[in-house]
Design goal:
Elements: H1 8-32, H2 38-43, E1 45-49, H3 57-71, H4 76-79, H5 90-95, E2 97-101
Antiparallel strand pairs: 1-2
Helix pairs in contact: 1-3
Length: 102
């Protein structure tokens, strides 16, 4: 039991951290264990290596780490895919994988 609720900023920060954790957990579980998220499966998209093979679990985990590096500088690694001639982002190039037709 609480006599009064925590401050609004604490509630907002906790809710934001909770949503970020759930999103990260979703991405990690479906990418490493399931090989694709449900949305990717519905759209007929799968991860492929540059040799057009299915990536190993280690490579998929490496892609998640590279995604973190790509997003950390204010999402710059993802935004630069617009200007890349192959439309690949930093984490695509670092992990040697891309999203293509299944």
């Amino acid at each position: 039991n609480m006599d009064e609720l925590p401050a609004m900023r604490v509630l907002e920060a906790t809710a934001g951290a909770g949503w970020a954790f759930v999103g990260l957990l979703y991405l990690v579980l479906f990418t490493t264990v399931g090989r694709a998220t449900p949305g990717m499966k519905y759209a007929g998209i799968a991860l492929r290596t540059f040799e057009n093979r299915r990536p190993s679990c280690a490579r998929r985990c490496g892609r998640l780490g590279a995604l973190l590096l790509s997003v950390l500088p204010v999402g710059l690694g993802v935004v630069l895919a617009i200007f890349d001639e192959d439309h690949l982002s930093w984490h695509d190039r670092l992990s040697g994988t891309y999203q293509g037709r299944a």
